């Protein structure tokens, strides 16, 4: 399915059920992960931090207010969340990222990359299943065993010696890794904006800026982990530095007995916030935990769900897209390669357009269109005092109305290892969902303990 560049296989023949707003037990406004700290769900201090951040960036020539603004609020908020709302720290990371993007022509890389180079990267690294979790966040799967030392060596060799795009480089970022960042561009510029425009989610007025990830390490031996150490460390550190807060949770499946040794390396590649999002699940934890976050119809069969999806193939179209997406040119699913959304019909709809190059020919073909629902005409108002207490409440309804599905509430007393990783014995009696909920509440308490001066800027 993914080996050719023709339109993806057609969507499931099953009839589409009505779009409903589905709430998971771990995605309420009382918890730190989502949507707290996102557009429409900011406390007074967080609102002030965002305004101060915009002022600092504008004063230092890295931001223009527009309209349209040079950078949207949801992007700026990613850097603020990553740096715990300390504006000057967020500025330094933002500036480093902007400098890195300019020095490596990341926009040009994404728009001009050769399809075969893109496809080689796509097949090796985290892949969008075409589905979302219960909150509307895209679900990615990553099977580590595909990254053996021979494959990585060849991947880096071709990347360093081939002209796979029109982008320049800074000579510092390993050329063999640059293709990987076309995939991050696809996440932030295609998948997340697409999921933002889909209304069948719990908070349709909140733009999607994260991803949920299943990382499958079954069948990976200690030698393979060791051989991958350098490559994975470089890739992880660059991604953490320049694509902050694009991960919601990472569920590690199939961990071998020696994984605690491997974890000792891995946790040093990430900042503490990212580390806190990683959960290691034993075999009996996988199905109940994933189902708490993801509808079974969107979980691959390999992990106890109903989705006929195999790592390596293109994303499986969701029946809920029927009646929302208008496919064109014979397409019934999204093809491989760079994709971007562009406004059409006087801003009433958005169109998916292909980019990249096939041979010497640049691609530019319209795949589909769908209604533009975000940004909504009326943004939700939020009680800032309640947000600060972790109980945000909308006071104005959005333009989108959907059917509510009742929400479960659970509590539990967690155990945790000193190193912060959530492992089998940290999730007691198979009650992974309760453990995750308590983890979120603990995270929220830590965030609230930050000094009130966190929004103060440095001139």
From TrEMBL:
**Looking at the record, which segments are called Disordered?**
1-29, 437-459
Which is a Pfam family this sequence falls into? Answer: CRAL_TRIO_N
Q: Which SUPFAM superfamilies match?
A: CRAL/TRIO domain, CRAL/TRIO N-terminal domain
- Ranges for domain CRAL-TRIO come to 117-311
InterPro entries assigned: CRAL-TRIO_dom (IPR001251), CRAL-TRIO_dom_sf (IPR036865), CRAL/TRIO_N_dom (IPR011074), CRAL/TRIO_N_dom_sf (IPR036273), PI/PC_transfer (IPR051026)
Write out the biased-composition intervals (Low complexity): 1-19, 446-459
Extent of the signal sequence: none
Source organism's superkingdom?
A: Eukaryota
Which residue ranges does UniProt annotate as crossing the membrane?
Answer: none
What's this protein's name?
SEC14 cytosolic factor
What organism does the UniProt record list as the source?
Tolypocladium capitatum
């Amino acid at each position: 399915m993914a080996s050719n560049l023709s339109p993806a296989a057609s969507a499931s023949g099953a009839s589409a059920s009505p779009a409903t707003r589905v709430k998971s037990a771990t995605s309420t406004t009382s918890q730190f992960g989502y949507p707290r700290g996102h557009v429409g769900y900011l406390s007074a201090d967080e609102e002030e931090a965002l305004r101060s951040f915009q002022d600092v960036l504008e004063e230092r020539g890295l931001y223009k207010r527009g309209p349209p603004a040079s950078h949207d609020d949801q992007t700026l908020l990613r850097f603020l969340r990553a740096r715990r709302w300390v504006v000057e720290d967020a500025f330094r990371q933002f500036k480093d990222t902007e400098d890195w993007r300019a020095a490596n022509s990341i926009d040009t890389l994404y728009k001009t990359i050769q399809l075969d180079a893109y496809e080689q990267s796509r097949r090796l690294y985290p892949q969008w299943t075409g589905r979302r979790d219960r909150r509307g966040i895209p679900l990615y799967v990553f099977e580590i065993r595909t990254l053996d030392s021979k494959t990585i060596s060849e991947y880096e060799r071709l990347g360093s010696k081939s002209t796979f795009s029109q982008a320049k480089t800074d000579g510092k970022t390993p050329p063999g890794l640059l293709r990987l960042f076309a995939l991050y561009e696809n996440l932030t510029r295609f998948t997340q904006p697409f999921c933002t425009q889909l209304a069948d989610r719990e908070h349709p007025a909140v733009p999607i800026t994260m991803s949920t990830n299943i990382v499958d390490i079954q069948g990976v031996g200690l030698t393979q982990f060791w051989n991958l150490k350098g490559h994975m460390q470089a890739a992880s550190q660059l991604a953490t530095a320049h694509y902050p807060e694009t991960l919601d949770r990472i569920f590690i499946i199939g961990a071998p007995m020696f994984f605690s040794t491997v974890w000792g390396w891995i946790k040093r590649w990430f900042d503490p916030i990212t580390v806190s999002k990683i959960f290691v699940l034993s075999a009996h934890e996988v199905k109940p935990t994933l189902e708490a976050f993801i509808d079974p119809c969107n979980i691959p069969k390999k992990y106890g769900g109903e989705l006929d999806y195999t790592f390596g193939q293109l994303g499986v179209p969701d029946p809920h897209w029927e009646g929302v997406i208008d496919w064109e040119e014979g397409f019934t699913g999204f093809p491989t390669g760079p994709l971007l959304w562009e406004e059409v019909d006087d801003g009433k709809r958005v169109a998916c357009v292909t980019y990249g190059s096939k041979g010497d020919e640049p691609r530019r073909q319209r795949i589909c269109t769908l209604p533009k629902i975000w940004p909504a005409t009326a943004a939700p108002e939020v009680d800032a005092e309640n947000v600060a207490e972790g109980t945000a409440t909308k006071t104005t309804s959005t333009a989108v109305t959907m059917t509510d599905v009742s929400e479960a509430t659970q509590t539990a007393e967690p155990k945790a290892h000193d190193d912060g990783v959530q492992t089998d014995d940290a999730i007691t009696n198979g009650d992974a969902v309760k453990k995750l909920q308590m983890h979120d509440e603990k995270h929220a308490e830590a965030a609230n303990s930050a000094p009130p001066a966190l929004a103060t800027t440095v001139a």
